């Protein structure tokens, strides 16, 4: 019989390893302490390759690496500040996040019924952003474009 059922976490490789290294660098640059705990929490959050809110994240981690919600709430602003995570959209008062490091800028379609998220890129958005900023003499730090409504599956369902 197996006395210890704990599954060892595999060491991060590839993109995830790069993200953890970027996070370490960010902590050092800011004079924050690089602790094993901070790294482990960042890693658990960044393993999530989806759009998620804190509750979803907490539930998905509960069986693997138990992390308190408070730790997640503390880690998220650091991950945002370091450019690894971004706020994507607000749904029922819950902010949803996604990893952004090394990813191309994209926008979202959000289904109000099944809560699916679809990503898309529109080449005309950056030039539109540029034009509006020029017109308004505004210095942009980014933009968000979101369309919400019904996805094709939900449109075809009755009620
Ligand atoms: Zn839908
Ligand atoms: Zn996205």
Q: Helix and strand layout, with pairings?
A:
Blueprint: H1 14-30, H2 36-46, H3 54-62, H4 69-81, E1 85-91, E2 94-99, E3 107-111, E4 117-120, H5 124-136, E5 146-149, H6 152-156
Helix pairs in contact: 1-2, 2-4
The chain binds zinc ion (2 copies).
Task: Describe it.
- There is one protein chain.
- The chain is α+β, with helices and mostly antiparallel strands and 159 residues long.
- The chain folds into 2 domains: 10-103, Orthogonal Bundle (Arc Repressor Mutant, subunit A), CATH 1.10.10.10; 104-159, Ferric-uptake regulator, C-terminal dimerisarion domain (Dna Ligase, domain 1, 2-Layer Sandwich), CATH 3.30.1490.
- 43% of the residues lie in helices and 16% in strands.
- β3 (107-111) and β4 (117-120) form a beta hairpin.
- The protein starts with 13 loop residues before the first helix and ends with a helix.
- The relative contact order is 0.12.
- Bound molecules: zinc ion (ZN) (2 copies).
- Residues 51, 88, 98, 106, 108, 119 line the site of one zinc ion.
């Amino acid at each position: 019989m197996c006395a210890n059922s704990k599954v060892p976490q595999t060491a991060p490789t590839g993109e995830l390893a790069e993200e953890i290294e970027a996070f370490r660098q960010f902590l050092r640059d800011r004079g924050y302490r690089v602790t094993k705990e901070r790294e482990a929490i960042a890693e658990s959050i960044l393993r999530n390759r989806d759009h998620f809110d804190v509750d979803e994240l907490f539930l998905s981690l509960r069986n693997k690496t138990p992390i308190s919600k408070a730790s997640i709430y503390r880690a998220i602003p650091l991950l945002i500040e370091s450019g690894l995570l971004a706020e994507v959209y607000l749904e029922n008062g819950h902010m949803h996040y996604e990893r952004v490091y090394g990813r191309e800028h994209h926008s979202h379609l959000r289904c109000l019924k099944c809560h699916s998220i679809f990503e898309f890129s529109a080449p005309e958005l950056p030039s539109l952003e540029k034009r509006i900023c020029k017109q308004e003499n505004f210095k942009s730090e980014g933009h968000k474009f979101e369309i919400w409504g019904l996805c094709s599956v939900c449109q075809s369902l009755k009620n």
